[in-house]
Amino acid sequence: MKIVIQSNKMFKLFCLSILSLLIVNCGKVKNSSSSDGGSVVGTAEFVSAREIIASKCLSCHSAWSSYSSDDYVKKGLVFKGSPANSSLYTRIRGNDVGVAGDMPTGQPNLSLTEIKEIKAWISSL
Question: pTM of this prediction?
Answer without folding.
Answer: 0.68
